[in-house]
Design brief:
Blueprint (H helix, E strand, L loop, with lengths): L28 H7 L4 E5 L3 H13 L4 E5 L3 H10 L4 E3 L2 H4 L5 E4 L3 H11 L8 E4 L5 H10 L5 E7 L20 E6 L8 H12 L3 E4 L2 H32 L9 H6 L7 H10 L1 H20 L5 H19 L1
Helix pairs in contact: 5-6, 8-11
Length: 322
């Protein structure tokens, strides 16, 4: 098995971290089931990603028990009814008790709060991971409390929907999606628990990719966070123009709807992302503003064609990657 790193695009003026990757034992879901490496999985947060993890594990044939935590009794009942979990808990300390694998599927600020609070309740052999969209702050906090026993592995599935909540959970959400794993230390990649979790990621249809936390955060600032803010900003602008200047919305066609699709995403999720990746997002916004200024300057000359051609080249690269 060849481990890969997330590399920044040439247009993103960042350097690739010098993590040293190791060739490690390849695990499969059959190994995980037969060796009982993860007999009990605890999912903290039963929203879109947490619910999808439970459903995806069941669909993949995971043989262990899946338990879940949610504050609202209605959410726990819904998760049980939909088969996302086998048992629900009202206390987060109770759900992680005796768990071999803990998946923190909450907003970033809640993940940061959970990390120190949960440590005394975890088994020494447990692996704890997360689905947060930023990684540097989370991995720094984890390094303080999870040196080896239990062990922390950062995670970020590059999959989702505009609408959050358990009602939007999907057993196929992770299929063909990149799933970025950010170990606190490179040598953690050799750990049997990390290898077993990588097998679970592959079993639910995702494609594991290894990165250091800082490189991850620089890349997603351009490739995930900037598109979200652009979509929300554009939708907000048109809403203002519609109200103040009577801008008609009847001529909004599929192109506008496609570009503003991400504007449906909840602020409650993106607040924490912006707070924990502020510097990288500011740099990305500055670069975009410069690009828009250049486009405005060249609206009436052939320099504008260069922007279109560069955009076409990127789209071709993305198609080749698929």
């Amino acid at each position: 098995m060849l481990w890969c790193k997330v590399v920044s695009l040439r247009d993103i003026n960042t350097s690739v971290s010098s993590f040293t990757w190791r060739r490690a034992r390849v695990y499969t879901l059959e190994n995980v089931n037969s060796k009982h490496l993860f007999r009990r999985v605890a999912i903290v947060g039963l929203g879109l990603l947490g619910g999808s993890w439970g459903l995806a594990l069941k669909k993949a044939g995971f043989a262990g028990r899946i338990v879940g935590y949610a504050r609202r009794a209605e959410t726990r009942s819904q998760a049980l009814g939909e088969g996302a979990i086998d048992e629900g808990f009202a206390e987060v300390s109770e759900v992680v008790h005796s768990a071999d694998l803990v998946i923190l599927a909450t907003p970033v600020a809640v993940i940061l709060d959970h990390l120190p609070r949960l440590q005394p309740h975890l088994l020494p052999r447990a692996l704890i991971t997360d689905v947060g969209s930023t990684k540097r702050r989370i991995c720094e906090r984890a390094a303080e409390f999870y040196a080896q026993a239990p062990l922390f592995l950062g995670g970020h599935p590059m999959a989702g929907k505009e609408r959050s909540g358990l009602e939007n959970a999907d057993a196929r959400l992770f299929e063909n999606a990149r799933y970025v794993l950010t170990p606190v230390k490179p040598e953690h990649l050799d750990d049997e628990r990390v290898q077993a979790f990588r097998a679970l990621v592959a079993a639910v249809g995702a494609r594991p990719l290894i990165s250091d936390p800082a490189t991850h955060d620089r890349a997603v600032a351009y490739l995930s966070h900037l598109p979200q803010l652009l979509s929300s900003g554009l939708a907000s602008l048109i809403e203002e123009k519609h109200g103040a200047d009577n801008l008609t919305l009847e001529v909004a066609a599929s192109g506008f709807r496609d570009v503003t699709r991400l504007a449906d995403s909840p602020y409650s999720v993106w607040r924490d992302i912006c707070l924990t990746n502020t510097e990288n997002i500011q740099l990305a916004l500055d670069a975009l503003i410069q690009k828009l200024e250049s486009i405005r300057l060249h609206l009436s000359d052939r320099e504008l064609e260069r922007e279109f051609l560069a955009a076409h080249r990127l789209r071709d690269k993305l198609r080749e990657m698929n």
